[in-house]
């Protein structure tokens, strides 16, 4: 018997096998490792986006300062 965990953001549905005492520990560990890797990747993307946002804000401020100086 297989229990299915669905996630609308994933194309492949992870399968957790049901054993006599619950889910197969190897399946649970694999699913958690996969989730951790995804979270680490998303956290990295957020850090890069925040850094880019700061850089763009500084650049926008420079252009505003130039525009005020030219007026």
Care to give the gist of this entry?
With 71 residues, this protein is of the alpha+beta class. 65% of the residues lie in helices and 14% in strands.
Write the layout of secondary structure elements.
Blueprint lengths: L1 E3 L10 E5 L2 E2 L1 H46 L1
Antiparallel strand pairs: 1-2, 2-3
Explained architecture:
Helices cover 65% and strands 14% of the residues. It is of the alpha+beta class and 71 residues long. The longest helix is centred in the last third of the chain and has 46 residues, at 25-70. The protein is rod-shaped, with a radius of gyration of 23 Å. The protein starts with a strand and ends with a helix.
Distance between the termini: 74 Å
Shape: rod-shaped
Strand content: 5-15%
Count the E strands: 3
Tally of individual helices: 1
The biggest sheet amounts to:
3 strands, antiparallel
Helix fraction, binned, reads: 55-70%
Spatial strand order of the main sheet: 1-2-3
Overall pLDDT metric: 86
* Oligomeric state of the chains present here: single chain
How large, in whole angstroms, is the Cα Rg?
Answer: 23 Å
Low-confidence stretches: 1-8
Helix/strand class: alpha+beta
SSE succession: EEEH
